[in-house]
């Protein structure tokens, strides 16, 4: 059994309206090795760059970094309206369709977070939409004597299990590296390591790949353990999920297997079957 490490790719720096800036990873460069991750954006925002909008066929995940100056307000057409502070996570499982909006909570400062779109397999494209979330104190942590820390937002790590359970298995780890940790990529899964700060070293099958801040690499192959190491403190995100070997058709905020499914999702939205969500009034 062995694991391969892809070439390292670099995130693009983008800026938009509403005090929005992002380090956007073009996961398409990783090909099928990125599956089930479709979008990975490391963002900072202080305004309202996006109004209410629909999603279908995937899960929209927003993790609020602990260094964020403010929290995240998440609203959706299911009736949810919640604020998640630094260190928390919101998992919007869109399934057959939902309208949502996420903005900084109040005027407490710039919001720093990671947004990830996680594809759903064909059997769950039309699953009932729902919002799952954890506040900072609900995210379990793993630590060792060397000072390494792993926040287990979703999935599990070395016996530490997150209470957040989406419809399909996934692992989301926020890792502070001081020395080294090991991570097992399960059978038929892919993993992505994205470095937020510092330099991380990915060690697999006797080879080492350096992944610096703003860069990422994919891990794929047979089930095996890999090591993440640092010679000085580093901050990384590790994402892992089952590889979905199915066609992917993307249109706007809909991700389906066939064009006809996209058309059906658009029709559901236009008929109001994804619900309604009024824009926020100006404060």
Structure report:
- By secondary structure, the chain is mostly beta strands.
- It has a single domain (3-270), classed as Jelly Rolls (Sandwich), CATH 2.60.120.
- It is built from 1 helix and 27 strands.
- The chain has one helix spanning 259-270, and strands at 3-5, 9-10, 12-16, 20-25, 37-45, 53-55, 58-64, 72-76, 81-84, 89-93, 98-104, 111-119, 130-134, 141-143, 149-154, 156-157, 160-161, 171-177, 180-185, 189-197, 199-204, 207-212, 215-221, 224-229, 234-242, 249-251, 254-256.
- The strands form 6 sheets. Strands 1, 2, 14, 15, 18, 20, 23 and 25 form an 8-stranded antiparallel sheet that branches. It has a 7-stranded antiparallel sheet with strand order 3-4-5-12-7-10-13, with no helix packed on it. A 4-stranded antiparallel sheet has the order 6-11-8-9, with no helix packed on it.
- Strand 8 and strand 9 form a beta hairpin.
- The model has no long low-confidence stretch (mean pLDDT 94).
The name of the CATH superfamily reads Jelly Rolls
Q: Would you count the extended β strands for me?
A: 27
Rounded to the nearest angstrom, the radius of gyration is 18 Å
Work out the strand percent: over 45%
- What does the overall shape look like? globular
In CATH, the topology is named Jelly Rolls
Terminal Cα span = 57 Å
**Main beta sheet: strand number and arrangement?**
8 strands, antiparallel
**Total count of helical runs of at least 4 residues:** 1
**H/E series, N to C?**
EEEEEEEEEEEEEEEEEEEEEEEEEEEH
Roughly what percent helix? under 10%
The low-confidence runs, each spanning 5 or more residues with pLDDT under 50, are: none
At CATH level 2, the architecture is Sandwich
Number of domains: 1
Overall mean pLDDT score?
Answer: 94
CATH top-level class:
Mainly Beta
């Amino acid at each position: 059994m062995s694991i391969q490490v892809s070439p390292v790719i670099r995130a693009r720096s983008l800026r938009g309206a509403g005090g929005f800036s992002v380090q956007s990873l073009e996961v398409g460069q990783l090909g099928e090795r990125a599956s089930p991750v479709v979008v990975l954006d490391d963002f900072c925002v202080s305004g309202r760059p996006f109004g209410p909008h629909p999603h279908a066929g995937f899960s929209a995940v927003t993790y609020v970094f602990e260094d964020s100056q403010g929290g995240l307000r998440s609203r959706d057409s299911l009736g949810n309206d919640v604020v998640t502070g630094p260190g928390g996570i919101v998992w919007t499982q869109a399934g057959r369709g939902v309208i949502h909006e996420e903005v900084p909570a109040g005027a407490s400062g710039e919001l720093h977070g990671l947004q990830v779109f996680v594809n759903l397999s064909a059997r769950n494209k039309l699953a009932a939409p729902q919002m799952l979330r954890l506040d900072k104190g609900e995210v379990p942590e793993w630590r060792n004597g060397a000072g390494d820390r792993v926040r287990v937002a979703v999935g599990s790590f070395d016996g530490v299990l997150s209470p957040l359970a989406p419809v399909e298995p996934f692992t989301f780890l926020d890792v502070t590296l001081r020395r080294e940790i090991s991570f097992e990529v399960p059978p038929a899964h892919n993993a992505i390591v994205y470095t937020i700060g510092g330099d991380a070293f990915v060690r697999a099958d006797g080879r080492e790949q350096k992944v610096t801040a703003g860069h990422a690499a994919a891990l794929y192959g047979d089930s095996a353990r890999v090591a993440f190491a640092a010679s000085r403190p580093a901050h990384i995100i590790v994402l892992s999920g089952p590889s979905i070997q199915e066609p992917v058709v993307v249109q706007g905020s809909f991700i389906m297997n066939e064009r006809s499914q996209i058309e059906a999702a658009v029709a559901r939205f236009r008929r109001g079957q994804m619900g309604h969500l009024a824009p926020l009034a100006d404060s």
